[in-house]
Amino acid sequence: MAATARGGPGSWILILGATVSLVRAQVTYETKEVPENESAEIPCAAYEYGLRNPRIEWKFQKGSSLVLLYHDEKLTDPYKNRVRFSPTAIVFLSVTRADTGKYICEVVGDGSRIATSEVTLIVQVPPSKPVAHVPTSATIGSRIVLRCTETDGSPPPTFRWYKDGMLLPTDPKSSPSFRNSSYSLDTTTGELVFQPLGSSDSGDYSCEANNNVGSPQRSDAIHMEASEVNVGGIVAAVVVLLMVLALVAFGIWFAYRRGFFSKRKDTGKKVIYSQPSHRSQGEFKQTSSFLV
Length: 292
Description:
Elements: E1 3-4, E2 11-15, E3 18-35, E4 40-43, E5 55-62, E6 65-71, E7 74-75, E8 83-86, E9 89-92, E10 101-108, E11 113-124, E12 131-133, E13 137-139, E14 144-149, E15 158-163, E16 166-167, E17 183-186, E18 191-194, E19 203-210, E20 217-218, E21 222-227, H1 231-257, E22 271-280, E23 283-291
Parallel strand pairs: 3-11, 13-21
Antiparallel strand pairs: 1-2, 2-3, 4-9, 5-6, 5-10, 6-7, 8-9, 10-11, 12-14, 14-18, 15-16, 15-19, 17-18, 19-20, 19-21, 22-23
């Protein structure tokens, strides 16, 4: 087992207790774009550097993840049925969007000389239909953000916005139709920010995603109404108030049905003595009473 520490020219490697100098011979970089579901050849320019008795290793890097693709003279399990290996290149039989990333070919020759080549593969995928996030009502004078999202396109698409079917220019002051608007448009993130929102900004808004792979895709249009007051907030407040009143009315009705509001009659009078007026054969009839 070898413990290694790699760097630039003159770095060191510890192999079985012996220390030898590593010389990094060459590093090359390349970018390739290939349509999804087609074959892709990724060259190993490091092999062509002319190292003697080369040992080759391929790695795949995506974000912070780094996995071995070819090691110990064989392809690893995830790739053995999808990739063909040769000393000068690897060939994908069919690429998917998950294969987008950086492919690193590292060649070690005699004298521990290392050559490395990197190829960034971009698997081209047309954008799907984007979604426009537009408030249906907004208050004039406030800051309002409209967003456009799309998750499938590769490379990531750029975005454009339309109002009532008309393309919004990047600078509203450059167009007579939009010079009364105050907005900023980020074509990379798809955000359209009004600051502040004006009365003339009411309209139907849609966005478009395009990465030059396939046809541009446009979202459904959503109407935004700019008003002096927040109509949506008022409607929501009224609905909440009606719900509270309904709950209070139900509580009163329920308490009444349970008898919590019934009145008990109490005259404060008690019978303390009664005198019979007639006795006959053990019978007793009350004719008068004294009440207090």
